[in-house]
Amino acid sequence: MNCEICNGNGWFKQANYQLEIMEWVQCYDCLAQEKYLEELTEKTAKLINKSSAEKLSLLLAKYCVNKIESERLETMLNEKNFVGLMSFLEVNIRSE
């Protein structure tokens, strides 16, 4: 997300004429966008919650097969590295 006001930083400088300084102010457009995305996430989670665990597992498995190189995925599966797999999913799904 690239905001025109703060360039995606979430903060921008604004003149405070009473104190005669420039101060950092939080960007309300970015806050509104974050709130909107959180609401969308909650609504989506409620909808997905109605799906079966098998369907969700299959979707995540397909994602892993497409994103992780085969040897690394096989190693994770052989070692039953659940934490590593979940960490991979958490990091990669957030970054997209």
Mind explaining what this structure looks like?
- The protein is an alpha+beta fold and 96 residues long.
- It has helices at residues 28-48, 53-67, 70-78, 82-95, and strands spanning 11-16, 21-26.
- Strand 1 (11-16) and strand 2 form a beta hairpin.
- The protein is elongated.
- The mean pLDDT is 89.
List the main descriptive attributes of the protein structure presented here.
4 helices, alpha+beta, 96 residues
Quick summary:
This protein has helices at residues 28-48, 53-67, 70-78, 82-95; strands at residues 11-16, 21-26. The chain is of the alpha+beta class.
Give the strand order, joined by hyphens, for the main sheet.
1-2
Distance between the termini: 12 Å
Shape designation? elongated
Number of H- or I-type helical stretches: 4
Label the structural class. Answer: alpha+beta
**Are there runs of 5+ residues with pLDDT below 50, and where?**
none
Helix content: 55-70%
Number of strands: 2
- Secondary-structure element order, N to C: EEHHHH
Mean pLDDT: 89
Largest sheet report: 2 strands, antiparallel
Radius of gyration: 21 Å
* Fraction of residues in β-strands: 5-15%
